[in-house]
Amino acid sequence: MNFSDQELIDGIARGDLRVVARLITLAENGVPRARAVQRAIFPRTGKAHVVGVTGAPGAGKSTLVDQLARTWRARGKKVAILAVDPTSPFSGGAILGDRIRMNHTSEDPSIYIRSMATRGSLGGLSKATLDAIQILDAAGFDLILVETVGVGQAEVDIVRTADTCLVVLVPGMGDSVQIIKAGILEIADLFVINKADREGADLLHRDLRILLSLAEAGTDRWEPLITRTIATTGEGAGEVVDGVQSHSEWIRNSARGKEKRLGILEHNIIQLLTEVTLERTLSSKRDLLKKLVADCYERKVDPYSAVEQLLAPSI
Amino acid sequence: MNFSDQELIDGIARGDLRVVARLITLAENGVPRARAVQRAIFPRTGKAHVVGVTGAPGAGKSTLVDQLARTWRARGKKVAILAVDPTSPFSGGAILGDRIRMNHTSEDPSIYIRSMATRGSLGGLSKATLDAIQILDAAGFDLILVETVGVGQAEVDIVRTADTCLVVLVPGMGDSVQIIKAGILEIADLFVINKADREGADLLHRDLRILLSLAEAGTDRWEPLITRTIATTGEGAGEVVDGVQSHSEWIRNSARGKEKRLGILEHNIIQLLTEVTLERTLSSKRDLLKKLVADCYERKVDPYSAVEQLLAPSI
């Protein structure tokens, strides 16, 4: 399908899903006119609430995300799911793509689901995710659920772009110090103990409370909630949705909440800045890079001098 | 201790551990003269073999790394361990630091151990790790073991800077598709099935073989090895060390190996380039960034235009 820029802009304003899908693809592929369209629709954004969901592989995130999406749907909200994956270039993404589709069993056509995966090795995933969020926001989605695969830095970066961060844990998967290791304690607004019927749920709950009690207290501070779910049956999904609602009110109405939103924006701009810089340097200086790599290999140039040469203005 | 630049350069050449520790700290703190010293010692680098070790939390990486270090020591090699952690700013790193020290029980003073953790939120970890590797390399270490915490993108980025990548797995922790999810299949040169006395080791071994058989075959290609260990007893450590040795010969003597080393260098230069660019833009344009964030919040400026303004040459 070929849409003109104006058709894209109008389609987004109408919430046309074909246009949404098309524009996300154009943005993913770095088509220049996507950026112009995104600028035009930017004033429409800022209404959606973005919920990041992260946690260890096998924690049941996809199932939980489905249940949350259904709960919001039942409450009359327009919901989109972005499943973000640092796909292996090795597997070409096919195995994974199928897996995600299988995991998201929801047949509800009113829930928009999109998988996003890294194409190249050089990241770009944060930018693609930010673009998709912006497009969905402008298209009138009330809730955008961003689901990531693991708990590494890339996931933390992506989840940080969310207004509310859910961290999904399961009883009996490593001790709680691992939570700190992954660096996710400070980004969690809600902890979800999934598979809460398993042994160890009480212990995990208690450990989390202790870890959270170590955090600095503040009058205006958000105190992370701990909820329990059994995603396969939907148990507890309502409570999580209520928790997100409370956090959404906090982030929109308190001074510290505004601070957090400014922090998210700053983070997003810095992510974009990094990717744009990299893209420009590498597209215009491919040959120089290749030469410098060979020189470093021969120990003729050190990596810092190589970087200086790459950053020097072109003649 | 205050060393002059020349004392630092000479100390590294002698392999003086106090100087090594000092220079790594200077580099971590971004002290400008560290860079000058690093340039001076760069020609001494390129001899060390860098082994990256990654895997899920709880896979027993620290114990395995200790065993490997001891095995190499026993074979007369000079060994350093870098334990790299995306530490939580929340915990201030203290809990984690202790944990690492506890995990590395090795009392052998001839094995140099250093923990590296993110200080700020803006990464810099890859640069710090690359700096430390370079310094240790110049100081005459034969083997540098870089151990990371998780299997996220940051870990993959760090492990990619290694000549040989070990991926540590344990039986019964999630199915094998998760391996692909984490995007680590294509970076592994050796798979180590640790805790191999556990149930499920045979199944994991078989699954890995099947996954590897899906990879493109090539005459000159490195075929990832699969080894089994019980790190707590040291069983299998010798086999892993032999495997790394084979890989080291492959990477140094084959055309594809050279290609891989060039790829590592390119990756390193790009990492440095990103961090240097970010650092410069943000140090000189803090106020502009703050203003643009506020403008984006009010929807007066869109993030892409903000990035353009940040990238515009200063007047």
Structure, explained:
The structure is a homodimer of 315-residue chains. Chain A is of the alpha/beta class. Chain A is built from 13 helices and 7 strands. Chain A has helices at 5-14, 17-28, 32-41, 61-74, 94-103, 125-138, 153-160, 177-181, 201-213, 237-253, 255-284, 286-297, 303-311, and strands at 49-55, 79-85, 111-117, 143-148, 164-169, 190-193, 225-228. In chain A, strands 3-2-4-1-5-6-7 form a 7-stranded parallel sheet, sandwiched between helices. In chain A, helix 8 links the parallel strand 5 (164-169) and strand 6. The longest helix of chain A has 30 residues, at 255-284. Mean pLDDT of chain A is 82; it is low at 87-103. Chains A and B meet through helix 3, helix 5, helix 7, helix 8 and helix 11 of A and helix 3, helix 5, helix 7, helix 8 and helix 11 of B.
In short:
The structure is a homodimer of 315-residue chains. Chain A is of the alpha/beta class.
Structural class call of chain A reads: alpha/beta
- What is the N-to-C succession of helices and strands of chain A? HHHEHEHEHEHEHEHEHHHH
Oligomer description: homodimer
Question: What proportion strand of chain A?
Answer: 5-15%
Low-confidence stretches of chain A: 87-103
Number of helices, counting only DSSP H or I runs of 4 residues or more of chain A: 13
Number of E strands of chain A: 7
Distance between the termini of chain A: 42 Å
Main interface by residue count: A-B, 76 and 77 residues
Average per-residue pLDDT of chain A, rounded, comes to: 82
Radius of gyration of chain A: 21 Å
| Major pleated sheet of chain A | 7 strands, parallel
State the helicity of chain A in percent bands. Answer: 40-55%
Please tell me what the overall shape of chain A is: globular
